[in-house]
Amino acid sequence: MKSICNRYTVLQLVILISFAGTMLLGGCARYARNVNALYEPSATVHGGSGEVYVVIPENQKTQSPDVKWVLGSISDGENRKIDEVFSPRSPAEIIQAAFGLEFKKAGYTVITATKRPVGEQRVIDLTKAEIVLDQVSGIVDIKSKCRVLVGVDVLNKGQLLKRLQYEATSSNMDVKDRDLLAESVLHDSLQSIMLKAVPELHSLIAE
After folding, report:
1. Is pLDDT at 175 greater than 80 in this prediction?
2. Predicted local confidence at residue 181, as pLDDT
3. Which of 39, 108, 169, 184 could make an S-S bridge to 52, C-beta 3.0–4.6 Å?
4. 23: pLDDT strictly greater than 50
5. Alpha-helical segments (H) within 80-142
6. 26 burial class (0-12, 13-18, 19+ CB within 10 angstroms)?
7. How high is the mean pLDDT of the chain?
8. Distance CA 85, CA 136 (A)
9. β-sheet bridge partners, residue 162
10. In 26-52, which residue ranges form alpha helices assigned H by DSSP?
11. Each residue of 43-81: b (16+ CB within 10 Å) or e?
12. At what angle do helices 181-205 and 91-106 cross, to 10 degrees?
């Protein structure tokens, strides 16, 4: 009986090693090092009209295609940092783009900017935009966790209407689509933010 158990354990180990070897030899990425989220609008808001500015700080605007923004870290199975997660866009730009798509879908004409306009325009000023995207890369699977934090000043006709903050976290684990998992949890976190934020912001600026 002991001999059978030992053979079973060895067989499991051989299968695990073979599977890991197949993944590596087949060119399967161990993890996603570069992330560039392609967001799809999800909020069910309608009836918007006119212009709305979505503003981010000027120092969060990417000035060169050579610039890479660090979103988080990659650790191995023993919690040792082995790499970083990069994006060609800053967290503020990623969030600004998501808001822009949502408000455009809602019917607004969206103007992205790095400074608050002077006048009576409706403004969504992203005063805080944080994305932390960490991954743990094991031999077989990859675990990703993303946290998004957004601070918003809402202005209309030059007056501050409200100061708001939204936060969302998403996590997942996968074996096959290891290179897509990071973008997936980032998209899920952004979607959670938009589902909460866009209806509330729309109700404020539509008045």
Report:
1. no
2. 87
3. 108
4. no
5. 91-106
6. exposed
7. 85
8. 11
9. 154
10. none
11. bebeebeeebbbbbeeebbeeeeeebbebbebbeeeeee
12. 50
Place of tokens 């809402």: 154
53 backbone dihedrals φ, ψ, rounded to 5°: -90, 135
pTM: 0.83
> How far apart are the C-alpha atoms of 26 and 151, rounded to whole Å?
43
First-to-last C-alpha distance (Å) of the chain: 77
Q: Which of 80, 94, 78, 81 is nearest to 36 (CA)?
A: 94
Which pLDDT tens digit goes with each residue over 132-173? 999 998 877 889 999 999 999 999 988 999 999 999 999 998
The residue type of 153 is D
Condensed to tens digits (0 to 9), the pLDDT of residues 3-17 reads 444 554 544 444 344
Query: What are residue 205's DSSP bridge partners?
Result: none
Dihedral (CA of 166, 149, 103, 34) sign: negative
Contacts (Cβ under 8 Å, ≥6 apart) of 150: 95, 126, 128, 129, 130, 165, 166, 167, 193, 197
